Amino acid sequence: MASESLSFLDRAELSSVSPLNRYLLSLISIKRSNLCVSADVHTTKELLQIAEEVGDQICVLKTHADIIDDFSERTIRGLQEVSKRKHFLLFEDRKFGDIGNTLQSQYTRGPLRIATWAHLTNAHLLPGPSIISALHDAATETLIHLNQSVATTISAGTPRHSLDSNPDPEASSQPPQLVQTSTNPRRTGKKLGASSKTPEEENIMFEHRRSSADPLSGAFATTTISQTYESAAPSPGHPPALLKSLSDASATDDIADTASALQELGPPPHARGLLLLAQMSSAGNLATKEYTNACVDAARANKEFVVGYICQENLNTQRDDRGLLNFTPGVGMPKAGGQGGDGKGQIWRTPDVVVRQQSVDVVIVGRGILGAEDRGREAERYRRAAWRAYEERIKE
To answer: How does pLDDT run along the chain (396 residues), one tens digit per residue?
Structure first.
C-alpha cells in the first residue's frame, strides 16, 4: 500500500492533500486517535450524552440523523458545540445514492439539512461519478449561504442627500458598494509560515451596501449583505511543540501539550467532505471489484472533495493516494473471556487486524462502545488498541 508506512502527520504535510484531509490527519495525530464512534441512538439526549462521554477519545463521531426521533435545531447546535469543545468532526452516515437534483435537496434541505452541520457524509457511486460533483456543488452553495447575512435598517426622517446643497436625484437608488470591513476576525495568534492574505487563507468579510429613500414617507432604508470567506485550511505550518511531541510514533499516550496543539490547529476549515462507499462487510453484497475500482478512480479525480472511503482494506495503491483516508466499520474487541462478535452472526475484526494487517486508517465502532457500562473508558480502550496497531504498522 502507498500509505501504510507513512505517519498521519507526514501525510498531513503532503502538498497534494486537501484542506479538510490535512485538518483531519493533523487532528488524528494530535489526539492520537484514529477512532470513530457510531452513535446509532434515537433521541437528541442520548446522542449528545454519547458525544460528551466519548468526545475526548475520538477523531470523528458518526451519526444517523434520520433515526433521531426529536431531531431539531437543538440537536444540531448541541452537536456543533460538543464537537468544537472536544475537537472531533461530525460524519452523517447518509449513504446518498440518488440522481443529482434529488440528492442535492436531500443534502441541503428538509429537517436534517445535513450540509449545514456535518463535516463529512458518504455516498454510493451507483448513480455514477456525477454524484460527487452534485454533492460538491450543493456543499459549496450551502457554505456560501451560511456565511452570508442580511440586515435592513429603516429609519424615519429626511435622507441626508436631500439636505445637501446640490442634491443628486439619482442618489435614492445607489449601486451597491463593496467594502472590506475586516480581515481574519476570528483567528487569534500568530500563524507559522508565509501568510498570503487571500480569501482562501484568511477570514475576510465584505459588505454590499445599498441605500434607498422614499420621498413621500421620509423613510430611509439601508440594506447590508455581509459575506465572510473563512479560512480554507488550518495553519500552513505546525507549532514547534506539536512537531516535537509527535515526531516519535512510539511516544507515550500522555502528551502534555495536546491542548495547546489543538488550540494552534484551530477550528476545522470551512469545507465539507465525502466518503465513497467502496466496499461493504455484509454477506452477499454486490460491491464487486469493478465497482470498488471505479470508486478509487472517482476519488482520485475529485480529491478536493472526496476525503476517502468506507472500505474493508486500504485502497491507497498509488503514491498520490496517500492523502485519502480509509474508514472501516465492523470493528470490535472481545471483553476478557468473551467472544469477538455481536451474538447475531457477525464476527467483528479487531483493531489489530484492521489497522495493522489491513492498513486501514480509521476504525468505526458502534455497539462495542455504546453497550458498555462506562462508554468513556471503553472508548479509551479502543482508542489505545487502534493507535497501538497504527504505531506497530508504521514501524514494520
So the answer is: 556 789 999 999 998 899 999 999 999 999 999 999 999 999 999 999 999 999 999 999 999 999 999 999 999 999 999 999 999 999 999 999 999 999 999 999 999 999 999 999 999 999 999 999 999 999 999 999 887 654 455 555 544 444 444 544 444 444 444 444 333 333 333 333 333 334 333 343 444 445 555 555 555 555 555 444 444 444 444 544 565 555 544 455 555 578 888 988 999 999 999 999 999 888 788 999 999 999 999 999 999 999 999 999 999 999 999 999 999 999 999 864 444 555 544 567 999 999 999 999 999 999 999 999 999 999 999 999 999 999 999 997
**Cα–Cα dist 115/113, whole Å:** 6
Residue 311 φ then ψ, to 5°: -155, 180
CA end-to-end span of the chain, whole Å? 13
- Look up the CATH superfamily of 8-147+233-395: Aldolase class I (3.20.20.70)
The answer to whether 332 and 350 are in contact (CB under 8 A) is: yes
The DSSP code sequence of 86-137 is HT-EEEEEEEE-S-HHHHHHHHHSTTT-GGGT-SEEEE-STT-THHHHHHHH
Active-site residues, by number, are 93, 95, 98
For CATH 3.20.20.70, list the domain ranges present in the chain.
8-147+233-395
Q: Is 395 annotated as a binding residue?
A: no
Task: Confirm whether residue 40 is marked as ligand binding.
Answer: yes
**Do residues 342 and 359 touch, judged by C-beta distance below 8 A?**
no
377 grid coordinates: 473508558
